[in-house]
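Sanity check

After download, print the first record. It should look like this:
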Amino acid sequence: MRLRLAVLALVTACALPALAQEPLTLDKAMSHPDWIGPPVESAWWSLDGQRALYTLKREGSPVRDTWTVPVAGGEPAKVEGAALAELDAARPVFDPSRRQAVFIRNGDVFLRVLGGPLVQLTRSTDAEADPRFGADGRSVIWRVGNDWFRWDSATRLVQPAALPRAEKDPAADPEEDALREHQLRLSTQLAREKAFREAQRENAEALREADPSRAAAPVYLGDKITIANSAMSPDGRWLLVVTEAKDHESGRAGKMPKYVTESGYEEVEDVRVRVGRNPPQGQQLVLVDLADGSHRELALSSLPGIGRDPLAEMRKAAGQDPLKGDRTVRIDSVLWSDNGGNVALMARAVDNKDRWIATVDLAGGKLVPAHRLTDPAWINWGFNDFGWLPGGRTLWYLSEESGFSHLYTVVPGERANRLTTGRWEVSAPQWSPDGVTAYFVCNREWPGDYEVCAVPSTGGEVREVTALDGVEDFALSPDGTQLLLRWSQSHVPPQLAVQPVAGGEARKLTDTRSADFAARQWLAPKVVQVPSSHGAGNIWAKLYRPETLEEGRKYPVVMFVHGAGYLQNVHARWPAYFREQMFHQLLVENGFIVLDMDYRASEGYGRDWRTAIYRRMGHPELEDYVDGVKYMVAEHQGDAENVGVYGGSYGGFMAFMALFREPDVFKAGAALRPVTDWTSYNHEYTSNILNTPELDPEAYKRSSPIEYAENLRGHLLISHGMIDDNVFYQDSVRLAQRLIELKKHDWEMASYPLERHGYQHPESWYDQYRRIYELFDENLK
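Expected structure tokens:
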């Protein structure tokens, strides 16, 4: 029978002890999260190390305010009025002495001598970025677009330092031409004008070289390229420019109709192109000597393995021509050492099978490989941090080469030194000011327990610094003695704490939860391990069930599938799916038991777990969910005849795969904003896992739910936002048409005209989860 909200509220009230506030209802769980209290979204230190600064969303508004709290203890306060002009900002860059720092705030560059006043270096409508100190110790450099500027503490002037241009040099000699030479020979006046132009150019160059008050001249790189990025050395001598060929064909973009609009008319929005129809183009590197404006392209052919095509056999089977020459490459980032003597870059093959770190022989004008990471599936999107230790001689980097993300150091040309090891992952490294100790987020105890760990730069014992279980991220204090921590728990959204790097108890600085939310009694998920019958070991999961099961009773089972594929939801932190966590409590209070699994492909479990789905999305994951159902039946009195499944995005895709490929196991399911056919998704995500439809059509057919729709026998709810610019609404419409043509029964589709991929409106959340509850209540009980 249809769910009546009053009944749901009554059952909830009976299931919990008497509380001062009204019981949890579906309407409350799906209402705007303002009722929970704002999470601490970002946090950083004041440069004097005395205060923590952080941002909170304003209630009833999308505006974010900056707050401050003394780290020694005290009441948080919102920063307002004139105090906003004195704020330090996140991600400051220190000079080698660490007596002064520069940072970007509101798009402008600021300098502070520690303990002294704040100096604003720019005030413009430009978006300044990447500030740092010059190698001379008295200047500051930064970037605007791809142009570089310098401020000198002696002159207090801002001047251009490097101006790369994707244009022909207007003063360059024209290409040789017989007719031009003929005209110059015949006309004395034309020859005289040409000589005058050359004299003026030579004089301007001489004046610029002799007169330091003149601005740097543009560097013309030609009109057949576009500039993607640039990085200037701190000594101002060199500029590395990342370029792309001009007029690249980006593929046919989609057109998304919008039906409910302010204008009252239908409108159309341009959206992304589909996988395989816009492969990213390759990039090149140009090294510019700013002393004389000369430049040369750096050949990428020295990168090991760049000439080998890992998809050659697949290309041959698809009847495609073999690749000619080296694979195309894109440059992720370029990092100079503090003194400007060394530079390192990270490059990645467009097919994403290889990642390289290389340095540059500046005098010789060539790349020098320092590290190669290769993967027959795909290189991870994360764990690509790298940089220079103080002194600019030693590189540090993260790599999954052992099967898990770990921290390494290497002096280019020498053997790498692995600092961490084990079946756990290192992320977000930060180094002590002296470069002696690395601090990073780790999950050593179990995959969902996140702490800050530390290890010496020479290697040795890894030490867990914190004991909060749910560290989100952290920032080192300016003097390197304390950690500012964002931490959370299953029912505590991210908060702030501070702790010495030597260890000890963390001092909690904030509690932004509302009184209503904090006072409630929540059903804590139990972390369990589900045995795999397919050789995957154990699958970590969150179990929601009553503390005591009624003897002899079988409980209908709901299986929840998290989104994104590569995402972790079984951890001790505040979940991205906090609404679903409350919904699971309501399901338990109304007679269901729920299992939420970190299936194969999920984050936090190493490289092999991540790439288990290569060329077969939806298959290992479904095996894990069938094992999860067996576990619920065997261990928690689950009813094997009444099993439902639901999830959004990748979880919606998996709900389809469950209903279509295991119709004897799953009786009902809800697919929210789901992918139905991977040929319609984007290139950046999909081509990593399935290659491209033209190259690997079988992988797409094997992995797309629309290919299995004829097997639907259970009850299905499809739910999709109509202006979803991530997974297009068209995905669900195409599957609906397929179900119509197959004459399938017991399915329905709910459309939300004003929702994108991540729903924003409480009414839509409520309507969607009302339908999900009714689906399970009517079909699993």
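If your output differs, re-run the checksum step. Summary of this record's structure: Residues 188-210 form the longest helix (23 residues).
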